[in-house]
Amino acid sequence: MQVKKLVTKTKIPIARHVVNPYIGCGHGCKYCYAQFIGPFKNTSGVWGRDVFVKINAPEVFERELYKLKGSILFSSICDPYQPIEKKYQLTRTLLKIALDRFRNVHIFTKSSLILRDLDILRNANVSVTITITTDDERVRKILEPNAAPIDERIETVRKLRESNVDVSVFVGPILPMNPANLASLLSKYVGRISFDKLNYPWYVENIYRKNGWTEWLRDEKFHEVVNVFKKFLDVD
Questions:
Q1: Which regions in the chain score pLDDT beneath 70?
Q2: pTM for this prediction
Q3: Phi, psi of 216 (to 5 degrees)
């Protein structure tokens, strides 16, 4: 698809602007708000299956970037390193454009595909946040069916850190887990971690009930998990 505009303002504190190279996300996370808030809701696509590629994004980005000041986030309503990125490499192309213009970039992803781009991320003005929502592969397979396994994400954190890339972890939303186990695993490789609640619990309530996870729908669980993590890590 062709787009007239690529960069939008964001209220996320770490950046002034956000770039979403794709509409839709092949990870297919069941809880993701982007399937019903944002441009995907106006498509006829099936969440987790259909992804719309902004094929002229580099040209539009080149034009818009000259008018913008401040940091740039990749991305807010899709994963910039979702599976389709292997073919189209839009994220890689856009990152190179931004970094060539000496822009401060932050990347949100739950994909190990980011390691493909270590050649442009090393020693660049880049920070990366890897999303790791649980330590339980059964939970991951149900709620994040096409996303990378948990151990692969932790390994991604390790490799980014070893490559001198500024990396942190986002546990959001908090999914059913053993918090002490996950905190212990992450404490080996990362010093900063932030959290978020399951913001639309009714959207996955039936899945939680079916799997006996209903206690994880309560706010108390969120605070319980954060308190466990505080024993191992500095948390936001």
A1: 236
A2: 0.96
A3: -80, 0
